[in-house]
Specification:
alpha+beta
Length: 444
């Protein structure tokens, strides 16, 4: 990271934070808790403003098409937040002992299983809404005479399918996504018996049950299906600590959903007021996440290139994966998933919306601008006041309002400073805009 802030030591930030809280015994004896609130405040600020754009370079090889920027070594978008860190945060906010994924030593009001199950559900919901766990599946067998292929139960949604004939039986073909009605209208011999003479050209999941797709015509030669899909996140299994499966700066989002569920429980768990607040934070956060960006621009071997959606590139650069002469591009298959075109050994440069760094490389200074520090500190105070409940928490609402207003003002200022800022900040949504998945694109 170039140009780190070196004006605010973490120790000074925690002292200022403790003073804001009145040095109360509820917080001041636990610097780890105060640092956790500051970390969440900085991550939420980063998710709203997308300020930490960072250049990143990796070497592509001739044997690999797809790369995931959330797992490439050295990527500014590496996912590091675990379920255990969110259990600790929720335990702080619920006035329980912060044991993370370890043995529960808190009160009988909640249990670790309460937190785990709620976080698991809400994490999967975030992954589906954001499409943030895209991967290439292992090749699936394509059997002549069979139009149906089963998917594993970790697949939430297939996004793109290619039929790859066995060696010596022809070239791969990228199938178009259709539905059974289109098959009936436009495919002669649809539902005919036996293998087709031409093989599949389209696929559908619209009129099929979960965990399978069908093709319009069965394969006429042996081969496999190459599937890009949206997949479920990891299964949390305390006391093990598991990576969350969503971008770091958005990790508070499933936590808000989990708190909504936990506080909506019956008997001594019930806190309808704070449960409603957490649910609102979760649903509003999903809307913002759907509008978020993750990639700004790219280059291949030092030459700027386009970053088209996978859908666009399949339409306008047919079978690009098998064409060494195709125009260079970095193809977006969804959040953090890119294909290098042409498939060849090369140097790929990307400008990505990186994770909030929190601290500088020496772990000394908090990474926050001077003009942003007051609203970040105020929002951290708002988070810390959650444990007060009722009037104590409600009295800090203005601090949250100030935080969001400042983020909006920052975005407006940055928007006015560029020429194509709006296009830059929507670059990472090209695949969802080309192939709407619901939410904000449903009626486009």
């Amino acid at each position: 990271m170039a140009g780190p802030y070196t004006w605010l030591p973490l120790s000074a930030a925690i002292s200022a934070f403790s003073a804001r809280l009145g040095n109360s015994a509820l917080w001041s004896t636990n610097a780890g808790e105060l640092q956790a609130y500051l970390t969440q405040a900085l991550r939420e600020w980063s998710s709203l403003t997308e300020q930490w754009t960072t250049d990143f370079t990796f070497n592509a090889t001739a044997s690999q098409t797809w790369y995931n920027t959330s797992s490439l070594a050295g990527s500014p978008r590496l996912r590091t937040v675990t379920d255990a860190s969110l259990y600790s945060m929720m335990q702080y906010m619920l006035l329980e002992n912060p044991t993370g994924a370890g043995t529960w030593t808190g009160t009988s009001q909640f249990t670790l299983a309460d937190l785990q199950n709620a976080l698991q559900r809400r994490t999967q919901e975030v992954i589906q809404a954001a499409g943030c766990n895209i991967a290439q599946l292992a090749p699936l067998n394509a059997t002549p005479g069979t139009v149906t292929t089963l998917l594993g139960d970790t697949v939430l949604e297939p996004r793109r399918i290619r039929f790859v004939p066995a060696s010596g039986f022809g070239s791969p073909i990228t199938l178009t996504r259709e539905d059974a009605q289109a098959f009936e209208y436009f495919i002669p011999g649809y539902l005919g018996s036996g293998p087709s003479t031409t093989g599949p050209i389209s696929w559908s999941v619209v009129t099929e049950p979960p965990l399978q797709f069908v093709v319009d015509q069965s394969p006429n030669v042996p081969g496999t299906y190459d599937v890009i899909s949206l997949n479920s996140g990891p299964t949390f299994a305390p006391p093990a600590s598991t990576l969350l499966g969503v971008p770091d700066d958005w990790s508070p989002l499933p936590m808000w959903g989990a708190l909504a569920d936990v506080l909506a429980g019956e008997s001594e768990k019930t806190d309808r007021q704070r449960a409603a607040y957490c649910l609102k934070r979760f649903t509003n956060g999903l809307d913002i996440l759907r509008q978020s960006n993750w990639i700004v621009m790219a280059s291949i071997n030092g030459v700027p290139c386009d970053t088209p959606s996978l859908h666009e590139h399949d339409l306008y650069s047919v079978e690009w994966q098998n064409n060494p002469s195709v125009w260079p591009a970095v193809v977006q298959a969804g959040m953090d998933m890119v294909g290098v075109c042409p498939v060849a050994a090369c140097s790929v440069g990307m400008t990505l919306v990186g994770n909030a760094p929190i601290l500088d490389s020496t772990n000394t200074y908090l990474q926050v601008a001077r003009d942003q520090w007051d609203v970040v500190l105020g929002y951290a105070q708002r988070l810390a006041s959650f444990k007060l409940g009722n009037d104590g928490f409600a009295s800090t609402q203005s601090l949250e309002d100030d935080f969001y207003r400042a983020a909006q003002a920052t975005n407006k200022r940055l928007m006015d400073m560029g020429i194509f800022t709006q296009q830059i900040h929507s670059e990472g949504r090209r695949e969802d805009e080309a192939v709407p998945r619901g939410g904000e694109n449903a009626n486009d």
